[in-house]
Amino acid sequence: MGYPTVASVNVGRARTLEQKPLLVSAIDKLPVHGPVLVDGRSLQGDEVGDQRNHGGTYQAVHAYALEDLEWWGTELHGTSGRGVRPGLFGENLTTRDLDLNGCVIGEQWLVGTVRLQVTSVRVPCETFGRWMGVNGVDARTWPERFVERGRPGVFLSILEPGWIAAGDPIDVVDRPDHGLTAAAMFGALTTEPALLPLLLEVEGLPAHVYDRAQAYVDGRT
What's the pLDDT band for 54 if we cut at 50, 70, 90? Predict the structure, then answer.
């Protein structure tokens, strides 16, 4: 692998993706040419359709690896040559040469003039499933399929605003000692609940994650 970089910066506007039942979402992100302003809350020109469940401090930026998109291209389309384009999974940053599964939760990235912090992982929701259905994938089985393959991507918060562009290097400038990786967090939240107690030892996670981990420890789930 080479030095980690941004392969693509992607933004999207909320729009109607399906009529029955109604699906309004900004999950369809498209690459932007040139620098993009990151203003402390999100990327300029990017919107959130479902603000109750998406976006916010802990999900301000979503990153997904180009290598994983290419893997999904083969998984979904075989040897037809069809790929999965940057932004299709709703990610703002398509990364190159960075193992997102191996990222440590809480580590900080310097990208362009923006400082980001890995805060969580993407657990598939109904919107993601329905959007993939619009793109010819079985929407009913997509969430389970996505979980089984274990390539979730990560969410990041914005610590310092600035500018970001395709081609920018991604420098990991700080990494916590606890060692909890994105892969481990994804397992805890999906198929390996026995890992949930580990999340209680990590600072800076969304409140609902602590609630779920504590409920497991208390035997309430």
Answer: low
